[in-house]
Design brief:
about 190 residues; mainly alpha; Helix Hairpins
């Protein structure tokens, strides 16, 4: 997974304006038009870098996408480091990355395992909510509701027609009289 903060060269606490400034600087540096006359490998590298920068900006400039990315990248770090929280995106504990054990050390009982479970629950909830609000799901739900309504209307109308044509008799009484008529015909 690409670290969007690292791509733009900003800190995780960067403001929207800092993200925007970093994007503009990197976009000018790697824009494909700027490298149109460069050798093929330089053009390809610049295009790839420009796409990475654009994707990073798209995610980090939108508050909802940024929060989702931060939650996902934190849980990725937790998985790669075996349950300990790490600022190192590569998952190793050497070099500049520092591992902080299984929690933040504030004594709240909020461990990395709880954080990962919460993140998984919220991402499942979000994906379920997004599915339930898609156009296809809502159309299918409306179709199912229409079919149920049609069955209920047909059932009710059948009962109403029966009562209109056979006033005073129930279905059971009518069946008994039909059986009696058949038995009388068989005798005679």
């Amino acid at each position: 997974m690409v670290d969007h903060y690292q791509v733009l060269g900003v800190a995780r606490t960067a403001t929207k304006q800092e993200v925007k400034d970093a994007f503009r600087k990197m976009a000018v540096k790697y824009h494909p038009d700027k490298h149109a006359q460069s050798p093929e490998h330089v053009r390809r590298n610049a295009t790839v870098r420009f796409k990475l920068v654009s994707e990073a900006y798209e995610v980090l400039n939108d508050d909802l996408k940024r929060a989702s990315y931060n939650a996902g990248s934190d849980s990725d770090c937790l998985r790669r480091t075996g349950g300990s929280y790490s600022n190192n995106p590569y998952g190793n504990s050497g070099g500049s990355g520092r591992a902080y054990g299984s929690g933040y050390g504030y004594g709240y009982g909020y461990s990395a395992r709880n954080r990962q479970a919460t993140s998984n629950f919220s991402s499942r909830f979000e994906s379920t909510f997004r599915y339930l609000t898609t156009r296809a799901f809502l159309l299918n739900l409306a179709l199912a509701g229409g079919v149920c309504f049609a069955f209920a209307a047909i059932d009710t109308s059948g009962e109403t027609l029966w009562k209109m044509r056979n006033s005073g008799k129930s279905f059971e009484e009518t069946m008994e009289s039909i059986d009696k008529t058949k038995a009388h015909k068989d005798e005679g």
